[in-house]
Structures are given as C-alpha cells and as structure tokens.
Amino acid sequence: MELSKNYSPEEIESKWYEHWLQKGYFKSEPDKRDPFTVVIPPPNVTGVLHMGHTLNETVQDILIRKARMSGYNACWVPGSDHASIATEAKVVAMLKEKGIDKNKLSREEFLTHAFEWKEKYGDIIYSQLKKLGCSVDWDRTTFTMDDHYYKAVIKVFVDLYNKGLIYRGARMINWDPVAKTALSDEEVEYKEITGKLYYIKYFIAEENSIKRTTYSTQNSTPDYIVIATQRPETIMGDTAVCANPEDERYQKLKGKSVLVPLINKSVPIIFDEYVDKDFGTGILKITPAHDINDYNIGLKHNLAIVDTLNEDGTLSEAAKIYVGEDRFVARKKIVEELKEKGLLVKEEEYQTRLGYSQRTDSVVEPKISTQWFVKMKELALPALQSVIDGEIKIHPEGKFTATYKYWLENVKDWCISRQLLWGQQIPAWYDEDGNVFVAETEEEAARYKQQATSKKTASESLQLDANSLKLTRDADVLDTWFSSWLWPMEVFKGISQPDNDDITYYYPTSVLVTGQDIIFFWVARMIMAGMEYKKEKPFSDVYFTGMVRDKQGRKMSKSLGNSPDLLDLIDKYGADAVRFGIMISSPAGNDLLFDEASLEQGRNFNNKLWNALKLIKLWEAKQSESDLPERMQAMMMSQINFNPELGMMPVVPIGLLIEENFAIDWFKNRLSEVQLEVDNLYKQFKLSEALKIIYSLIWDDFCSWYLEWVKPDFEKPIDELIYQKTLTFFEQLMQLLHPFMPFITEEIYHLLRDKEEDLIIHQFEKPEKPDHKILEQGSTLKEVITSIRDVRNKNQIKPKEKIKLHIQTEHEGYYSDIQDILSKQVNAESISYIEDTIDNCLSVIVNKDKFLIQLETPINTGIQKEQLQKDLEHLRKFLSSVEKKLSNQNFVQNAKKDVIKLEKKKKEDAETKIKIIEESLSTI
Predict the structure, then answer these.
(1) 457: pLDDT confidence band, cut at 50, 70 and 90?
(2) Are 25 and 498 in contact (CB under 8 A)?
(3) Confidence check: pLDDT of 707 > 80
(4) Are 71 and 33 in contact (CB under 8 A)?
(5) Which domains does the chain have, with CATH numbers?
(6) Measured between alpha carbons, how far is 477 from 480 in angstroms, rounded to an integer?
C-alpha cells in the first residue's frame, strides 16, 4: 500500500470516529469490571467549545481512554447545562428579532420558544466534542432540563425545605439590572477600576432654614458638611449621614440633621464605630437600599429604606428626580446639577473594586429583595471534612485545598431564586393570605393548604369555601447551580430513582476534571449534595485545570479577538495536533499561555510519525523482495519457540544478532522505563509531563536513535526479526500515545500490521523492570556518537569521509557490544583499543574514556588547543557549581540520597575529564 507524502488528518479522523461509534466502544453498561467514571462538566447549552473547554475535555478524554485500555469499564457521561441567564438572554434576543415582546408571552409560550431554540442550537457543542475525538457515551447524554432531572431538582428543593435548610426572606442580595435577576455572591466578579469620589455639600438643617455660609469646624457649628461618595445618583435614597463617635470634628453635630442635596429632604446625623475617620471627610451618606454596609447600619439604627432604582437600573419614582433615567446617565446629570448649584466641592480619582455580573458583565446593584436561600453551614461541614480527611484529593495537591477550606469555613447562605422563566420553577405556592406551601406538585400543595385550612376552620367552626384553596405558584426559577450540584448523581438518575443499577455501579465517580474558577459554584456544592443524599463523596479526585490565556497572559474573550474558533483550528491542524498543542503546554493546574505554534508542533509531530511509518514500510518492501538470510532460514527450520505476536516469527535468541541486538535491548528497556514513568505521572495527573516524555521517547529515542541504529545499509534488506521487533515497538509507542492523539495512532497501528482488534481497546501490559546498566550503556553510546560527530563537524571532516577511531579505556568489554553501532554512526573504517596516546589525533572525552580520531593530514594544534581550553573552562565552571551545591548544608540535609549520589558522581566525572584535558593540553 502506497502511503501519501504527508499525513492528512481530516479524512482519517472522521473515518475512525465513525468506526469507534459503530463498534460501540464508547458505550458502558454495568458489569463485573471495576468502573472508571467521569461526568463531563456540563457546558452551557448556549455555548461553543472555547480553548478552556478544549483543555478540559482533552484531559478527560485522555483519562477515559487510558482507563479503557487498562481493563476498566470506562464510562464518560456527556451533557449540557440549561444556563438560565445566558439562555434566556439568547431566546429574548431571538424573539426581539422576530418582533415578539417577552413580557407579552405566557410562561408556557416562552418555554416553547426556549426549547425550540435549544433544539436548534443546543447540539453545536456536541458536534465539536466529536471533532475533538471525545469518547463519551452518547447514549447517556443528559440535559439539566430533562424530565427526570427537572423532577430531581424539585424533589431536592422540597426535601431541604422540609429539613429547614431552605427559607424565604428579605435580604440584601446582588442584583443584575440587565438580566433583571438576583445573583449569588459567587456569580459576582470583582474588578479593580479607577472611579471617582465626588465631594458634595450637605447643609445643616436648622429650624427649617438653610444658612449658606463658609464651611467651618472651628468654634461655631458649621453651616454644611462635605461628604465624599462614589455614587451621587443614590443620594436621593439617603436616610442618614454618619460619623465616627470618636471623631471630634463632628461632635457639635449630635442631634442635628442635614438636607439631602437637590431634594432638600431632612435626614439625621448619626454616629457609629463603623465609619473610618480617614476615608474622605470622615462622614458618610447612609443609603440602606443600595449598599450592604449602609444596610447593616440602617438595621442597627432603625433607618428607613428608600429604593431609588428600578429592576432595570433606571431611577424609580422614589428618587423624585430623573425618574426613568439609566443610573449612569443620571449620575452624569446629577453631577452637572450639583456643579451648577455650587454643591460639588471637588472630584478625585479613586481606585476601587466593583462587582460585575459574570453572565452579563453589567455592574451589579446591592438590592433589598425577598428571595429563597439555602442554609449552607450545616451542609458544608461534611464536605469540608471529606477533603481535610483526604477522602477526596484535590490536584494539584495543596494549590487549591486552602482555597476550598477557606470558602467552606466562611460559607454564606446561598441565594437560589432567579427572576427568570427558563429553568426549574420554584415548587412553592401561595394562597391569598400570603401563606406558602412547598410541595413537588400543585396537587400536593393544595392538600397541604386544605389540611391547614381544615384545622383552622375546625377550630372556628367555619365551612371551607371553594376559593379558599386557590393557589398561585412562585414565578421565580432556581439558580442553574442548584440543578448542576446534583450532576454526578442525577446523570445516573440517583435522585429520581435512588437505588437503580447505574447509580449503584457508577457512583461515586472516579475523577472530576474542571476549571479552578468554579471551585465554589460547583465543586464544593456537588460534594455537599453527594454527602447529603448519598452519604458519600461524589468523586475520589478533583483535578483543576488552569486558565487558558493568550501569549500576553490575557484572558481569552471575543471582545479582545484572542479566542480562536476550535473548528477552525481542527480544520487547519487536525484534532490530534490541537490536542497535542494544548496538552504539551499545560503544566498541571497552572495557567496555559496559548500559542498556535504549539499546534504547529503537534502537526509536525504527526508528520514525524507518518515519515517514520513510511521509512519502516519502505524496509518492508525491500525485505519482501529478497530471500531471507540463510541464518534466518536455518532458524525457521530449527527454532522451536514461536511468538504469535510476531506473526509466527521465531523469538530472537540472545547473541544471535550483533549491533541490532543491543539496539533492541536498549530500546526495550527505554520503553519500559518510560511506561513506568508515564503510569506514575498519570496517578499524579501530570499529563503534560507524561506527553513530553512520550514525545521525546518517540522523536528522539525511537526516530533519531533506534531507527538509525537498526536501519539497513543502502539497498540491503533488513533482518526479518529486527523488522518485526521494530513493528512491535512502533505499535507499543502508538498505544502509549493513543490517549493523547487517538486518530493517527489508530491509523498507524492498523497500517503496521493487519489486526482485527482496534487500538482503542488494546489493553496495556504491565511494564517490565528496566535494566539500568543497558540504559546507561545506551546513554553513553549516544553521547559518544554526538561528541564525535561534533568534532568531525568542527574540524570540517566530511560525513562520508571514513575515520580511524582509537579508544583509550579500562573497560574494553563495555564497548564491544556497541562498537558496530558506533562504527556505523560515526563512519569509522576501524575501531581499535589502545593504551598509549597516538599522535595527530582529535580527542573526545566521555565519562573517563578517551576517543581519538586519527587524521591523515597534520592537525591544526591551535584549533585543537582552543577547543580543549573552552571545554576545560566549561568543566571547571560546572565543577564549581556542583561543589557549591554539595557544600550547602541545607541542600545536603534535605535532598534525597539518590540526588546527592548523582551530584557526587557529577563531581567525580568532571574531575576526571578535567584531568584528561589538562594532560592532553600538556602534550600539545
């Protein structure tokens, strides 16, 4: 079969994904194997895969493919989140384009439009997951508005309400004026901004008259005070001004009042320790409806609450002026009016933190509102303990554990009601007297109402009226996170059908892979829900991926134009290259600085693998055109032991081959060494490091060294056994790489030899313990070859020019196994072992041995001396750094024994090389 010049991913990737689907490799059902379960963090149904998703889903697919190839029953559940705020905004925009006003639709009519939108656009993200190669069980796809899921959310709400853990009350909450809904504290993102402080005059109210004289705090009572505020648009909601009782400047104002600028409303001057004497002028305006601290002071001093803002952020009737104007437009107009009336003293720039809605990016308003809340402290305790006790492990270790603990130790009640239509409607019904009845269905609520009314009427000897059972359902829906905190359970119907086979088998799940930005929103709450409803952890490990940023360290966003389209990247580079690029530069838990060059590296790696395949298949063509060597025929006749893996070819006897035997032994041990190291890195979730090691093993050790060592001479056939063993190595490398780059590895695996079993389900074998003596010998061989080539190059000895190589060593046997490879790789016509130095030679020192290249023409001693002096200077600096490290008692006391042993060996080797170079210099 003739292979294409370059690897073309598009056709191959679609071919294999369809093949895997048809074979049912992604499907999972409970059986006798141990499960390995992952539930996808459900992306918003509105969304497309951005680079953060790409990293997250790639990590999950790597883990699930590795588990599938390691004997586990791998189950990866996909799905999407209904994303109340984001989806409703999309649907409202769609309706607006059609000329439809949301406010004129009934709930049922709006939900019909919303589900139509979801059916049209909601599967986009699934098609992207397929393009990326994600091996999810599509039959288990779950949506948080599925019927069973909806019922589960309602069931949990009712249960927590009955346990006294959900309550309804008026509180200061975060309000999104664009989405027109309440937000939880975790949905507010604080940004450092440069704002302004406005210094405004508040005149003292005296016997209904206003004295407009110069401001003074000397012996007489001042005519006005100056108050600094960031929000002049809220002064109409002021119900007091407040100073610190220890502030002597304002002692004479006790018992007095001031007039609120522009509306001349009289409010009292109060005193409270909360006020910072050094902020602004040391006296604050108190606006309880629009600031949490003012609200708390208002409660303490029994102040009125005047809400001057409507739900959409415009000024309300209570403001009296600029009614209906947007809050920020009103701010500008109020500042201008204050200037015109001489009430604005000055403006100053001021650094402050301002809260923004994560969903709409609008400035959040503190607002007094009646909402539903979950009491979190009781739920948080077991969730906190599970991490402290190590029952749930957070990765990277230590990095996020402290953050998790801090949040749970300081958790606040969770505002769960949202003023939206899209989502699970709160299961609470009200009668005409405002009594609330919480139940899973309206019929059940009506029974509760009837029971309550029956008790009342029985005591009052009254008859029930037909209208007395009339109930109105709460119009709000639940926070999206109130549904997604049930995700690891309800994807297996663990709430709606608590004891079914799936939840019993798959729960708790194995590992959660998610972004560090939702540790509070989702991770902690899932643990709380799991401990509450299953009395056990929802997962054993949590792996937090870092944030994907651009090369400048900026967060990726459409507005900055630095967020590439995933499908465009896959079309350009291929899915394997995208997966490689995003993983190779993603150290565990740290932010990833995305650079498209890493995807180019992935594409180049694809081509490297493809070229290696073409090279080996070329050898196949050559050996198939020749008769087997006579010794091979003899072996075929006499060898008893056969290896089915090699297509009934005999096993290579020790000592049968010459240079190739060492090449095979070395690479077999190098492969085992990497397999063990990669397995260990998987356990630590250090996947980027694992990929780098596999990449180096393939690119350097296999392609650059092993294939060069076993490559047949020009126009000569390759030994059949060497060829078959090389194919086996290549297959094992593809298996090792498969979780990271599934498409090209499956393709190459089948092109190497005809097989019935696919690579995706080919089981890993337990790696053998590597022989470190052979590995060390291979490292020495590589260093000798590299050093001799370097000397040849520096002395302009052409690659095709043969050399005579002499080796000064006390360990001749050490090099006898590798001298044929060495001879071929450095193009030596002869290799001899000598005791005395030979004249007219270029020298190379490796370990304690000296390699002399004998030249026909006289050596340029000046060049040789200059090079030796450079090498000597480098070695002395290196020795100095090693000696400094070994003389550091802190290092010696804390470093592992193996590390100290290695440093001592470095010192010994450097001293030996220095001695040899000094001797060489003395003879020039």
Answers:
(1) low
(2) no
(3) yes
(4) yes
(5) 24-158+484-582 (3.40.50.620), 191-352 (3.90.740.10), 428-473 (no CATH), 595-760 (1.10.730.10), 776-923 (no CATH)
(6) 9
